[in-house]
Design a protein that fits this description.
Helix content is 39%, strand content 19%. It is globular. The protein is of the alpha/beta class and 299 residues long. The protein has nine helices and ten strands. The C terminus is likely disordered.
């Protein structure tokens, strides 16, 4: 069995008052209630603004006071949603937002961020924050947006993207643990990419070649997935293998899921997350959960 992400019972939410951050707050509250966890609302003031030529017009203490007032609205929202006030705290930090959230992820079981920020200047949680956090965090990161579909009742399905090289095994382990603890089923999704090379009809394989690729991939996936799922006999698991563009397939499938979980293999110093994860963070209509395997966490 892979090492699960247990972590402390603490949910960290990046909050800047934007629409997406309020969606992140709502998701964080649900997770805190579900896990009986502490909720920490964090606002980071990007020090690159304060240290720039324009920084002379900003008073850090005034900015902190303004951030504290904004966070107070988040606290009120969390309490109104049913979370005890004693389980909610706030932090205002000066520094790079992604770095701040990454640092706090060391003591969290989940970090939740909005896809983008609706503001500029001192509003720190912008798209680059989500990208930087998922590439470096030490616990799973959930990226949400106001564009996510809202259902009266959850679909009861967590999707996990996995490939034949076993990228996604840690994500699958996490999803299985979530379903075992809180209910629901898992669907494992693998997408065969079109083969490259002139010998495949100028890059366009035949229908028979596509079917063969799906067949081979399914056989490999069954073997890999069964090794992990055997430790979770109580969780229903489905396997879907298709042929096409992974971003297109996963984006369409996300509309029917409560969450789509992916594994990122970002490396120091850039912590780049790749085009597929960036695309899903931008276009996915459900929360995107990104997990970085523990053995790939750099300095």
């Amino acid at each position: 069995m892979l090492v699960p992400y247990l972590g402390p019972a603490r949910i960290v939410v990046g909050f800047d008052g934007s629409d997406d951050s309020f969606r992140a707050l709502a998701h964080g509250v649900r997770e805190a209630l579900l896990r009986e966890a502490e909720l920490v609302l964090v606002h980071a003031v990007d020090d690159t603004v304060l240290n720039s030529a324009w920084g002379v017009v900003f008073d850090p203490e005034q900015i902190k006071e303004g951030a504290a007032e904004m966070l107070a609205t988040g606290v009120a929202e969390a309490v109104a949603s049913g979370l005890a006030r004693t389980r909610v705290r706030t932090e205002v930090v000066l520094g790079n937002p992604a770095a701040a959230l990454t640092r706090m992820s060391n003591e969290a079981s989940l970090v939740v961020v909005g896809r983008t920020s609706g503001g500029t200047g001192e509003k720190a949680f912008i798209g680059s924050t989500a990208v930087g956090t998922v590439g470096a965090a030490h616990c799973p990161v959930v990226v949400v947006s106001v564009d996510n579909l809202q259902r009266e009742q959850p679909a009861g399905v967590i999707g996990v993207a996995v490939d034949t090289s076993a990228r996604g095994a840690v994500a699958l382990e996490w999803a299985l643990g979530e379903c075992r603890a809180h209910g629901g089923r898992v669907v494992v999704i693998s997408v065969c990419r079109a083969p490259q090379g002139r010998w495949f009809s100028a890059g366009h394989p035949t229908a028979e070649q596509e079917e063969k690729a799906v067949e081979v991939t399914r056989a490999r996936m069954v073997d890999m997935v069964s090794e992990i799922t055997e430790d979770y006999p109580e969780v229903e698991v489905g396997l879907e293998v298709s042929y096409g563009n992974p971003l297109d397939v996963l984006t369409a499938r996300a509309e029917e899921l409560d969450a789509l979980v992916l594994e990122v293999h970002a490396s120091f110093p850039t912590y780049s997350v790749g085009g597929l994860i960036r695309g899903l963070m931008s276009h996915g209509r459900c929360p995107i959960v990104v997990i970085r395997p523990k053995d790939s966490h750099g300095s």
